[in-house]
Each structure stands twice: as C-alpha cells, then as structure tokens.
C-alpha cells in the first residue's frame, strides 16, 4: 500500500460466490469502440493479505466475512523477507510462532472457499534490510524466490495463476527506499521475475506492480504514473508483463475535479490518460490492484462518503472497457503491526488505520455488530445486486456536468438501474424511468428496501439522495420455486413459508410484497428478510428454532413515520381499569376490544408490548375513523361491522403503508 498520508499532504487540493459472477458483457450499443472490452466476469477484489495480516486461528472467520461480502479476489502478499532469511537458505511457508505469515494455510483456505488470488511478490530480502544494497547483490536470489513461490502455489498446487511483481515501484517508500534506485532497476527486477515465474509455471500471468498516481509535485526519486510507464516502455520492457496494475488513488470523489500539480482531473481524466498511453504503447488489460479512501477523523471522507465513493468508483470503472478488476484497499482497518494484534490501535487521526471496510477488533467474530462499516454494506450490495447481470449502458454520464450518474444492468428477467447524485449542495431532480414493469424495489446503497413502487403506467419517478449514495431500482427477478401468489407475483419458501402457513397466513400477514431479500440487520450483519402487506419477516439463524423467524417492529416504525415518539406519550393511568392488563415495560394497558385477540393469537411473541393506548385514528383522505391500538410489531384495528366473526379484529396493513406506494419515490 502506498503511503497515502504522503500523497494527501503533497496534494494541494452473489448467494454463493458462483452466483455473484457477472455476465461478461459485450460493449453496450454505441459508436465504434476502439478499446477492447475486457473480461469483467469477476471484477470484485480487496486487499485482505490473509497470511500477513490475520493470525492463523482467526483466518476461518475472515474467510467467512470475505465470502459473505461477495469478494471474488484477494491480493495475497507473500513477503520475501517472511519466507526466506538467508541467501540460498530454506523457505518457511507455514508461518512464525505467533501465527502470522502462514501462507500455506491462508492460500489453502481461500482456494477451498473459491476465492481467487492475485499473488503479490515484493521487496528486497531479509538479509539486506537497512543496508541499502544495489539490486545486483540480490537479483539472483530474487529470481530463486519468485521461482519457488510460483512453483509451489502455481505449478504444484494450482492455487494461484496471476502474479503481481512488486508494489508501487514508482514511489519513494516502496521504490527508491526499497532498493530500486532507478526505473532500470525495476525493469531488471520485472524481467527476472517474469523469466523465473514462466520457468516455474508456463501458465503464470504477470501483472505489473501497481503504479500509484501522485497528485502534486513529484518528489525526488519518485515518478508519476504516466512518466514511469513511458520509461518502462522506452527500456524495452513493455512485453514483460501481461496485465497493467494501477493504483488510481485520488483525494476527492470520482466525479469531482481534483488539483494535480497544474490542472484539475476527474476519475475520467485519469482513465483517459491511461487509454491514450495504451493506444501508443500497446494494449494491456487494466487491473486496479489498489484503490480506496480512508475515514480517519481529520479528513473530509466520513464513513457514509466512503461507502458512496466505493460504489460510484467501482460502477464507473466497470463501464470502462479496458478495466477488468478492482481491488479495494483494504478489507479491514490496519493497526500497529502484529505486536498490537490483540490490542488494536484505533487512532482516529491515523490515516493508515481507516481504509478498511471492517473496523478493527479482537477477537475477530463474524457476529460482532461493531465491525461492519457502511462501505462493507456498499460492497455487499454491489456484488450481490449485480450478480448475473451485464451492463446495458450508461443513461447519464456523471462527468457530463448535470450531476447525475445513471447505469442500467440486466440479465435474465431482472433489470437494475443504479442512480446517484454528485452535487451535494443542490437538491437532486426526480427522474422518470421507463421500466416496462408493474412494480419495482428501490434499494438504498446498502441494500435496504426504501420503497416498493407500483405502477399502472409502466413508468416510475425516483429521486436519488442528496448525500451522493446510489439508489438501486430493481424490477423482475422473481423466484420460480416455492408457493407463488399470483396477486403479487411473489413467492414464499423455506422457513418463511413455514412460519407464514403455521401462524395465521393471509389474515395475519397478508400477501408477500417481495420475495426473500438480504438486507443489513443489526450491526450491518446481512439478514434475510421478506416484506408482507402486514409485516416484515427477519431470519435470525443463531436463535433457538422457535425464534429463528422474528417479526419486525413495524408498529414502532409506523408511528415514527407519522412523527410520533411513543416513548414520549403519556403513560396509562394507574391502576388499570377492571379487565385490563398493564405492562410496565411500556407503561401502557391492554383492554377490550383488543385484549382477547392479543392473548389468543400469539401475544407478546407475535405482536410485542402495547406502545399506545387504544385511540381513534382517522384516514387523512376519507376522514373515516376507527378504533386502533399500536403494538411494537403491528397495529390492531376494531371492525365492529364484523362483530361475531373472526374479522372483528384485524391487523393493520403496516407493510403496505410503510414500504409501498404508487409510482413516485420519495
């Protein structure tokens, strides 16, 4: 990882993993496209560095989080100074006594989990640390190291095919101060590595060590990206790698012009510069082998901005024909090295400690509600929502000056429009979507359903949030297995179906408004949910069997939607009237006509405590009134016209009222 602190100071200004593989689309229909369309079937990666940064006993938990997030690739750094300690000496593959640098275990676990690996080979050897040797003194040993690593994990085990040679060789810290005193030195390192890797495994694919962008005056002994690549080509080494690795860090959002020495650049300008260079020097696939923003306290990037910029950067990159992979730096916040592993340093002002999608904790537990940042949910939504889809086209280019980014993705019977706003100081417009649909789900950046929109005109109107987070407007994709309801074209299956059928069915829950979907639950833990006319189901797999399916607190949510804080309501009078029950937990009573229904149809487990007294609620449009009472999970309604029938007490259509509307959002 480049020292981004220095960069900023210098700057003046998918289901299973298989189900998340994207269709490898052809270029969208448009003018003649001179740049070849790359393989975008598995674009999502991150820097996890399982062997270097995760203790061996915690690797399985990290693997679970990697799989959960939808990661398809990890860049695994196999540090030379951690596997060999003397020239010509033996190699240590199974780590140290503290449980770190166990590359055999780290790589095997990832291979077993179906996670692809980009192997990173870098830096000068342990026996020359702090001695400033010339590459001549260790180049032969470097070739032996590359050969042995590629032979072990490539040829013999078949676990790694792609190898990145060095990391940010154009920067002072990882170039000049790591033994590469000139571009010629790096070219010799690259040539030696390619020859050794191909000798060990003829199928090895070489990725040029990620060249990092510099945004202000270039320090002595450093080179900005274009200059460095030009010099590599001038030295005859353009054919020594197969894939161009880049680290296109930038200080501002992708669409916002940032000052770069003597001019402003957006992300599109950065990409255009690279494409023009490739036109001259020869086409190579592009992998962004690092990219990210830190959320440390003294910067302008808070956690919500990090999430928004992650999605926007990746979406824009995936529409660029030559870009094939994007690796986010990094998956988990760093700390002060292995010595601080059990007592992580979380200095809020240290930039290097806040690039992650996961916060740093010890021990690492997948059920820890503290660890997932909004950007983690943003990546989860990206990998899962685009699974199986290909790019249809860009409906609004976010660089054209109108403040809107708008892409359409489609595959099978499912289509997703992703829309975002780039001008936070102005209110975004409503946008008309010709959806050719009867309904659509509007998801927030993290996957939460904001609204289920129905339409009888086959069009919708949506407004992206002013804060820059994308919305995802999804239609189609209904499941074909399970119990289907023709009224809404949705199905129920598995434990949700069993719960619906065994606990009152249509009368208690209504029809399904969606199929089962995944949303961030408490602590942003991905949670299976399903929306019904009268409630919302949540799956809690760690609970006892009878409590695995829980109902959401829609009574609370509906009152909140109307601006009512039930905790501020006057408590019920004491003592309660005869025939009533009083609940100290909420300071409310339960009386006729709702008490008997509550007691006989599920009580506390089904509806929760009462959070209001019974009162008359009036319809804003018709003026009609009805006696109701709100509970944590629902609203009871009295229908005296049905006295003597099972329908005298009915449950409110809170799922419908909270989440469904006609045609327009918000």
What is the topological layout?
Elements: H1 4-10, E1 44-46, H2 50-53, H3 59-69, E2 73-77, H4 80-83, H5 103-113, E3 116-121, H6 139-156, E4 162-165, H7 183-200, E5 205-208, E6 211-212, H8 225-234, E7 244-247, E8 258-260, E9 263-265, H9 267-281, E10 286-291, H10 303-318, E11 323-328, H11 374-385, E12 390-396, E13 404-411, E14 414-421, E15 431-434, E16 439-443, E17 449-454, E18 459-462, E19 471-476, E20 483-485, E21 490-492, H12 494-502, H13 505-509, E22 517-520, E23 526-531, E24 536-539, E25 549-551, H14 554-561, E26 581-583, E27 588-590, H15 595-600, H16 603-607, E28 615-618, E29 625-630, E30 635-638, E31 649-651, H17 654-659, E32 660-662, E33 664-665
Parallel strand pairs: 1-2, 1-11, 2-3, 3-4, 4-5, 6-7, 7-10, 10-11, 17-32, 18-33
Antiparallel strand pairs: 8-9, 12-13, 13-14, 14-19, 15-18, 16-17, 16-19, 20-21, 22-23, 23-24, 24-25, 26-27, 28-29, 29-30, 30-31
Helix pairs in contact: 3-5, 6-7, 10-11
CATH superfamily of the largest domain: Glycosidases
The CATH level-2 architecture of the largest domain is identified as Alpha-Beta Barrel
Mean pLDDT: 93
Share of residues in helices = 10-25%
- Across the major sheet, the strand order is 5-4-3-2-1-11-10-7-6
Q: What is the CATH topology classification name of the largest domain?
A: TIM Barrel
Strand content: 15-25%
Number of domains: 4
Q: Helix/strand/pairing class, anyone?
A: alpha/beta
The major sheet is characterized as:
9 strands, parallel
What is the general shape? elongated
Low-confidence stretches: 1-20, 24-33
Helix run count: 17
């Amino acid at each position: 990882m480049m020292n981004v602190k220095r960069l900023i100071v210098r700057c003046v200004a998918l289901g299973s993993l298989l189900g998340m593989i994207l269709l490898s689309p052809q270029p969208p229909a448009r003018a003649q496209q001179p740049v070849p369309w790359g393989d975008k079937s598995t674009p999502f990666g991150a820097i996890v560095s399982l062997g270097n940064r995760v203790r061996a006993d915690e690797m399985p938990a990290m693997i679970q989080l990697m799989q959960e997030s939808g990661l398809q690739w990890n860049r695994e750094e196999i540090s030379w100074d951690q596997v060999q300690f003397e020239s010509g000496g033996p190699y240590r593959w199974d780590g140290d006594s503290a449980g770190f640098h166990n590359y055999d275990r780290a790589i095997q676990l990832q291979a077993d989990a179906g996670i692809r690996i980009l192997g990173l080979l870098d830096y000068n050897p342990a026996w020359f640390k702090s001695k400033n040797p010339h590459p001549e003194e260790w180049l032969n040993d470097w070739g032996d190291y590359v050969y042995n690593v590629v032979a072990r994990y490539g040829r013999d085990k078949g676990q790694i095919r792609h190898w990145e040679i060095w990391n940010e060789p154009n920067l002072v810290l990882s170039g000049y101060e790591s033994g590469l005193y000139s571009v010629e030195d790096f070219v010799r390192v690259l040539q030696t590595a390619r020859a050794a890797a191909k000798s060990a495994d003829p199928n090895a694919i070489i990725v040029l060590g990620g060249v990092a962008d510099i945004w202000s005056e270039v320090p002595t002994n450093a080179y900005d990206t274009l200059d460095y690549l030009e010099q590599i080509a001038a030295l005859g080494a353009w054919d020594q790698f197969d894939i161009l690795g880049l680290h296109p860090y930038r200080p501002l959002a992708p669409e916002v012009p940032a000052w770069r020495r003597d001019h402003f650049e957006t992300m599109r300008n950065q990409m255009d510069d690279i494409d023009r260079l490739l036109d001259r020097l020869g086409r190579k696939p592009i992998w962004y082998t690092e990219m990210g923003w830190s959320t440390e306290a003294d910067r302008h990037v808070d956690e919500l901005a990090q999430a928004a910029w992650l999605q926007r950067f990746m979406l824009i990159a995936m529409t660029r024909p030559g870009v094939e992979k994007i690796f986010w730096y990094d998956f988990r916040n760093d700390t002060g090295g292995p010595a601080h592993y059990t007592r992580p340093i979380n200095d809020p002002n240290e930039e290097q400690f806040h690039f992650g999608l996961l916060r740093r904790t010890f021990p690492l537990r997948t059920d820890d509600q503290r660890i997932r940042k909004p950007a983690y949910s943003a990546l989860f939504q990206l990998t899962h929502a685009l699974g199986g889809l290909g790019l249809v086209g860009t409906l609004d280019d976010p660089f054209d000056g109108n403040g809107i980014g708008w892409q359409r993705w489609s595959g099978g019977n499912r289509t997703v429009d992703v829309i975002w706003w780039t001008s936070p100081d102005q209110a975004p417009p409503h946008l008309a979507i010709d959806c050719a649909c009867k309904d659509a789900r509007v998801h927030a950046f993290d996957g939460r359903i904001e609204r289920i929109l129905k339409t009888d005109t086959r069009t919708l109107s949506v407004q992206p949030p002013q804060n820059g987070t994308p919305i995802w407007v999804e239609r189609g994709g209904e499941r074909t297995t399970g119990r289907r309801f023709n009224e809404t074209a949705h199905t129920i299956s598995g434990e949700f179906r069993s719960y619906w059928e065994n606990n009152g069915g249509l009368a208690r829950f209504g029809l399904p408004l969606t199929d089962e979907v995944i949303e961030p639950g408490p602590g942003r833990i991905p949670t299976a949910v399903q929306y019904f006319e009268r409630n919302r189901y949540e799956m809690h797999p760690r609970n006892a069997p009878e409590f695995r399916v829980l109902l959401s607190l829609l009574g609370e949510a509906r009152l909140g939607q109307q601006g009512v804080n039930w905790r501020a309501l006057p408590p019920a009078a004491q003592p309660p009237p005869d025939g009533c029950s009083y609940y100290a937990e909420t300071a409310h009573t339960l009386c006729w006509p709702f008490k008997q229904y509550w007691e006989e149809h599920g009580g506390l487990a089904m509806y929760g405590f009462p959070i209001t007294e019974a009162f008359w609620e009036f319809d804003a449009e018709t003026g009609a009134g009805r006696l109701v009472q709100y509970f944590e999970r629902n609203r009871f309604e009295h229908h005296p016209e049905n006295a003597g029938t099972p329908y005298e007490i009915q449950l409110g259509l809170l799922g419908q009222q909270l989440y469904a509307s006609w045609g327009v959002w918000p």
